[in-house]
Amino acid sequence: MDIRRKEKKAKSKVEKKEQRWKAAVVTLSDKGYAGEREDKSGPLLCGMLEEAGYEVTEVRLLPDEQKMIEQCLCELADEKKVDLIATTGGTGFAPRDCTPEATLAVATKNAPGIAEAMRLASLQVTPRAMLSRGASVIRNQTLIINFPGSPKAVKENLEAVLPSLEHGLAILTGNASECGKPASEGK
Questions:
Q1: In a structure prediction context, what are the per-residue pLDDT tens digits for the chain, which is 187 residues long?
Q2: Is residue 2 classed as helix, strand or coil in its secondary structure?
Q3: Which conformational region is residue 102 in: left (phi greater than 0), alpha (psi within -120 to 50 degrees), or beta?
Q4: Are the beta carbons of 84 and 22 closer than 8 angstroms?
């Protein structure tokens, strides 16, 4: 029995290394969409995800229009079948910021711990982190995470949650179990 368990664990590690998660990055900015501001957060997210082993298959730039955002998120999750959608921008208090509302509108399940962890990590850097309204949800088998619009905040927030995302995606897609197992036991 112990040998089977070790073989299964070894096979799981090989499969894990071969798994390449498909990601989409969506920047939400009226000024970026109009060509009035260079998007720096979207490319940063792409680079960090690719460095972590994700395959970024879609990159989009949209204005702060809730219906357009909802349509994009649904297309990426339902038609393109990406595993992770990382949005950047539209999470603040500005009147046109509607990314969390669009994200929550397309959710099939809430996954608030990711957004909470990002705010907690950001609070260690700035008290203004409490002003982020970013959400984290699941749409069918796609994880959607809202990141702030600033490159500095994107980097800090992604670094805070990146170590746990792979396991969450494996659970979500049925490629892993034992979610309650401590990370140290999984190695």
A1: 555 555 555 544 444 445 799 999 999 999 999 999 999 999 999 999 999 999 999 999 999 999 999 999 999 999 999 999 999 999 999 999 999 999 999 999 999 999 999 999 999 999 999 999 999 999 999 999 999 999 999 999 999 999 999 999 999 999 876 555 554 454 4
A2: helix
A3: alpha
A4: yes
Q: Cα dist. 20→28, 34, 54, 136, 163 in Å? A: 25, 33, 6, 21, 15
Residues in the chain: 187
User: Phi and psi of 7, rounded to 5°?
Assistant: -65, -45
At 170, is the secondary structure helix, strand, or coil?
helix
84 phi, psi to nearest 5 deg: -135, 130
Residue 45 corresponds to which tokens in the numbers above? Answer: 């997210």
Q: What's the rounded Cα separation, in Å, for the pair 173 and 69?
A: 24
Tokens in use for 26?
């969506």
Nearest Cα to 65, choosing from 89, 91, 97? 97
CA distances from 42 to 89, 107, 140 (A): 9, 22, 24
DSSP state of 115: H
Question: Which pTM was predicted?
Answer: 0.86
Residue 7, number of CB atoms within 10 A of its CB: 10
